[in-house]
Design goal:
The protein is α/β, with parallel strands linked by helices. About 60% of the residues lie in helices and about 10% in strands.
Length: about 750
């Protein structure tokens, strides 16, 4: 995958924005359990009272609370409250909110910052707990033992109904301070959150005593927290939409760029590279493999960056709720990682095989479709069906194996997740019962644990996609990193003006890649402008190989090919092929119209030139017999025209180009003798100044050629005109006599 990482560079900004959005989304999602915890702990259990620092406090209650504070704490607390006396102008502003202010002085909390509030909270919480404990003893003397345990004093002898606060005020300061320290130690062991929760009941009682509407306080808190949860959820949705948009743009754009470069690379391949990569494999790599990369990029941007943020953030927040249950998450994570690694080790080798099986399936399907007429002619439908079934069954069997391995992940993950939920509920319930944990914190811990597990589940999905995409990336990179054996020179030469279309083979030998011997041996000849040079010989003698060397479909092994006195390897391929009109042995047409196919020769050609080329190629009869004329549709591969029509359109396409050099690689084989003769006659007139190279099996086609080259086993065994070869070349004479009568040859 790293071999294709350069294709993500143009989308760096989108990736950075996506990561930022994922970070924001993760923080939004991680904040939701905390708000749920607050609703349960504060909104429901604590009645909307958020802390042990009350907004208002009767003076009489304040006098009781300060008994259990040090002098420094007492000074700090009272400094942050303002005492409002009843009947004053200041009191009128608070009467509606605190009705008790009509008869009793009230301390009103100043506008304090969060740091000050957090500092006062444990102090006030312990003081409220101490006061509420004393009040409990005053109402229920049986609680003396419990109170004695907390304070360290034996209070069992105190009569019921006694004013304990009055007695405590009379105690020496040192003894009172000793009692406060003992109570602080006891309350501190409960934990700050539990102290706050316990003290909140006393704060609510104080609010009731002040005449406040505590029901409205609870409702307002729940509505406020619920509103924040809705806003956070909306923020998460917005981030998710942005992430989806940018990940889609990045994955689609990078896939487009890779597909474009693969296609451009394949266009530069010579026949040697096409022998290395089959057509079916190249099609698979350009479609299926790039789709795998596109899916991987999208999932990486949406999950790979998101999952670690969620996982790490979930662990931190979960431990902040209850550090004592960390081992439950650790066990679940270890089990998940083990399962993912097992699946990964089983699936990775199979994905490599799968892509090769897809290649095989495409190959069989392509061959069967393109050779359907041959298959029917030989009644081989059953054989091809069996061949396709074999390729299809192999791919299906492997896919089923991979799916069976992958399907284990979902139930195993659900079992781990549900098991973790049960374990958290079991352990958490015991901690709630022991007053060491709040119910809301247990619920939040459970949600954070689920988020951690889900983050690993996201990564597991990546482990499903990554192996196959990794194989696909390597296959694509193999194509992109292939260096064509035929390359342009770094400092190319240019043909001179005026251009002289002479073609010279100088001691040329050629060997196909990985072949053991040469197929051409010491070929030398010169073809001049205005002349036709024909190549004839038995099958496999090297005729097509010679003409394929001229446009550099292959490069010579030894010797030189010169055009206009310049070695063709010293000019760019584009400039070389711009001077050549090539008609291949097998006519190739593209889907579109007749006109679009002819304009392949020159897209700027006018209608007169198209018509003239069609006339020379003897194609006007079948073109214009159709009412649509040049606008007639050509099916994919030219399947809706005959072989002869396909050849004539291919010849017309080359004629539209009007190049100085024409190459006809056995391009008249599908034409009848009459059409062949008419075409050659018209071609002689229209291309009188061009160099023409013709490969043919027909002696009648080349009888009038200025130069005929006879090949046998890759060597020139005869060179000259028809008459000269009939006299001094037995090979040519044998070929000619096998095709034409003596009268026709004279």
């Amino acid at each position: 995958m790293l071999r294709l990482i350069k294709y993500l560079k143009p989308y760096t900004l989108m990736i950075v924005v996506t990561i930022a959005m994922l970070f924001a989304q993760a923080n939004f999602d991680l904040a939701l359990p905390d708000y749920l915890s607050k609703i349960v702990n504060v909104g429901i259990q604590q009645g909307g009272v958020e802390s042990a620092v009350p907004q208002a406090l009767r003076q009489s209650k304040a006098d009781q609370l300060v008994l259990f504070m040090s002098e420094q704490e007492k000074t700090d607390v009272l400094a942050n409250y303002t005492l409002v006396q009843p009947g004053t102008t200041q009191a009128e502003a608070y009467l509606d909110e605190y009705p008790a202010l009509t008869t009793e002085a009230v301390y009103i909390l100043n506008d304090v910052d969060e740091e000050t509030h957090d500092r006062l909270n444990p102090v006030m919480g312990r003081a409220f707990l101490a006061v509420s404990t004393i009040e409990k003893l005053m109402k229920d003397p049986s609680a003396a033992t419990e109170l004695g345990t907390i304070t360290g004093f034996d209070l069992s002898t105190i009569p019921a109904g006694a004013d304990l606060f009055g007695l405590l005020e009379k105690l020496p300061a040192a003894q009172l301070q000793q009692m406060a320290v003992a109570m602080d130690e006891k309350f501190t062991s409960m934990g700050e959150s539990m102290v706050t929760q316990a003290a909140v009941e006393a704060v609510r009682a104080e609010y009731d005593a002040l005449g406040m509407n505590t029901g409205t306080l609870q409702t307002n808190y729940i509505v406020r927290m619920g509103g924040w949860m809705l806003l956070i959820s909306l923020g998460s949705v917005v981030c998710s939409v942005v992430v989806s948009y940018f990940s889609g743009r990045t994955s689609s754009g990078s896939a487009r760029d890779i597909r474009r470069d693969v296609f451009k690379k394949v266009e530069s391949f010579s026949s040697a590279e096409f022998n290395q990569f089959s057509t079916a494999s190249l099609i698979t790599r350009t479609t299926n493999d790039i789709t795998q990369i596109q899916m991987l990029v999208m999932m990486m941007m949406r999950m790979v960056f998101f999952a670690p943020i969620m996982g790490v953030g979930g662990v931190i927040r979960a431990l902040s709720k209850s550090a004592s249950m960390w081992y439950l998450i650790a066990i679940a994570v270890v089990l998940l990682i083990g399962m993912i690694m097992l699946v990964f080790s089983l699936a990775l080798p199979k994905f490599k095989i799968m892509q090769k099986l897809i290649d095989k399936l495409n190959l069989v399907a392509r061959e069967s479709l393109s050779g359907m007429m041959v298959i029917r002619a030989f009644n081989m439908q059953k054989f091809e069906e069996d061949r396709f079934d074999k390729a299809n069954s192999d791919l299906t069997a492997l896919s089923l194996y991979i799916n069976r391995v992958m399907t284990l992940m979902s139930p195993m993950m659900m079992m781990i997740m549900n098991g973790l939920t049960l374990a958290i509920m079991w352990v958490g319930a015991h901690q709630v019962a022991q007053a060491s944990m709040q119910v809301g914190d247990m619920m939040a811990f459970m949600q954070y644990a689920m988020q951690i597990i889900f983050s690993f589940m996201m990564l597991s999905f990546m482990f499903i996609i990554l192996p196959r995409a990794s194989v696909s990336a390597d296959r694509i990179a193999d194509v992109l990193e292939t260096k064509p054996v035929i390359r342009d020179p770094q400092d190319p030469k240019h043909f001179g003006e005026p251009f002289r279309a002479s073609v010279e083979f100088r001691n040329v030998s050629f060997r196909y890649p990985d072949a053991e011997s040469d197929v051409l041996h010491d070929i030398s000849f010169t073809s001049q402008p205005g002349q036709t040079t024909a190549f004839i010989g038995s099958t496999g003698s090297g005729k097509s190989t010679i003409v394929n060397l001229v446009p550099r479909f292959f490069d010579v092994t030894d010797g030189q090919i010169l055009i206009d006195g310049i070695d063709i390897r010293d000019v760019s391929q584009n400039e070389l092929r711009d001077r050549i009109g090539f008609v291949p042995q097998k006519g190739v047409l593209f889907s579109g119209t007749i006109e679009s196919n002819l304009r392949y020769g020159d897209e700027n050609a006018d209608a007169d030139r198209l018509k003239a080329a069609a006339e020379t190629a003897q194609a006007t009869e079948f073109i214009f017999s159709n009412p649509e004329g040049l606008a007639a549709e050509i099916a994919q591969g030219g399947t809706n025209v005959s072989g002869g029509q396909k050849q004539r359109l291919s010849i017309a396409r080359a004629l539209v180009k009007q190049p100085p050099i024409y190459i006809f690689d056995d391009s008249f084989s599908a034409l009848d003798f009459k059409t062949d003769a008419a075409l050659r006659k018209a071609l002689k007139q229209d291309a009188a100044s061009s160099t023409i190279l013709i490969v043919t099996q027909r002696v009648s086609t080349i009888k009038n050629a200025e130069q005929i080259i006879v090949l046998e086993e890759g060597k020139i065994v005869g060179k000259g005109s028809h008459a000269e070869l009939m006299e001094n070349c037995p090979t040519y004479k044998e070929i000619a006599m096998s095709q034409l009568s003596l009268e026709e040859l004279l």
